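Lab notebook, bench 4. Still working through the backlog of constructs that have no structural model yet. Next entry is a single chain of 543 residues. Request: give me the structure tokens for it.
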Amino acid sequence: MALRRGGTAVAFPLLLPPRRQTATRAAAGGQPPENVVRVPWALRLRLQRGARRRQGQAAAAVGRRPGKLLLRSRRPELSQPRWQTVGRWERPQLVSAGWKHRKACGDYFQLEPSQEAAPALQAPPSEAGQGASFAEMGLQPSLLAGLEGLSIGRPTAVQRLAIPALRRGRSALCAAETGSGKTLAYLLPLLDGLLSRPDGPAVEEAAAASPRGLVVLPSRELAAQVGAVAAALCRPAGLQVRGLTGGGAAGGLRRQLRAAPPGAAVLLGTPGALREALRRRFLALGRLRWMVLDEADALMDESFAEPLEEILAHAPLAAGAPGPTGPGEARTQVVVVGATFPAGLSQTLGKFTDVGQFVTLATQSLHRLPPHVQQKFVRLKGRDKLPELLQLLKERPATGGAVLIFCNSASTVNWLGYILDDHKIKHLRLQGQMSAAARAGIFASFQKGDVSVLVCTDLASRGLDTSSVQLVVNYDFPDTLQDYLHRVGRVGRVGSKAPGAVVSFVTHRWDVDLVRKIETAARKRTGLPGMDSSINNRPPKGS
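Model written out:
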């Protein structure tokens, strides 16, 4: 390199960094040298240590107890082993955290069963030897004979809790998980009370039915099911049980009530039919001594609110504050039963009785996800739900038990039924917009096993005995956490041969909000949020 200065050329040597041998060879071959990025040695060591630490954590999570997972994810790093505990105030890393993004479609996670038997069949250690059998509870021998006819030998957790308390005559709120045996928990002590107390003289007109016990149920299917159990229990004792359901002309109500003598002991009915019978003076409640409101959250629906209040107004609930009942006291014992409870229940009952005197009977598994049922959540686009459902049904073995497919509307039930017809899949449909004649016998046929697939709305999620069901498909994700609990409770019931499984299709952004709450509760092993088992307190707003 030369620099001309003052007319004189001065030469300076050009100093270049020494080239590596590979770069020299590349230049000799006519190719430009490659760019080399050097990583500092300290940073390289730090990255290597971090990678080894992450590999060790993953190996510990998977290899410490192989196959024992609480939550299985499509992405293994988000799976949670059973031994891992998430703190109360800790925020777990959720699989569903990013499910509101469209790219999440195809992702899934699965809650694995952590025990084989239903919680209702497991006796707490503190109760060992206390009321371990129905005979030790002091029930009437005729009721024990009825239980033997039903092949029921051992009480469940809610029955051990509720029967002794209700036999004392207390009005109560009985709260227990779905499929835990709540029907016998309220029928046995109240029938025992009818048998132990002498029947007083009838004070109503001879033309009006005047039962001593009344069970109010939200659907005709549930009324028929509970009626069959009550009839089997009452038959050895000689008590009369009758059902009252609507859907027809007033003459039908009269015929149903005329089939029973005026002094029939037990009446089971739906709110609309009971209100119509009271208005037409086919029914009188002056001799009523106990009343059960079964599936209370469904009874508090807007369609049942007015009929229910009218029934409560006719019952002698205000004869005295609910409490221990003596032989000569004329007051009605009220039992409110359910797995979930609405916010307005205490306000409705408070118009007619003192709800402050109610005793709360709640099981330990209330509002918790069933630990013995496999539950899978799949993030899908709406157009992919139907192919996914068809694949599930076609791959299911013939001996795999019955299937319940839940939809959120009657129109979806009908549309999906037409699709299943096209694919030659035999099924039944059940939804609230059907006429009474169309609904009659549908669920009974499904229970008998004539058809193994039932497409339905939440009408079939409350209280019905579905012990033959081994798969529940939420084709439409439920609107509330309460609805999810009721739907998942159709499998893994007391008396089921297998725990069963639940598959839920998650398609909408608002569905993801509920799934996140379910996943958080599963990882922390806590109850679902926004639930309340107390009749005096309201659930948090917006839950």
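Notes after review: The radius of gyration is 33 Å. The longest strand covers residues 333-338. Flag for follow-up if needed.
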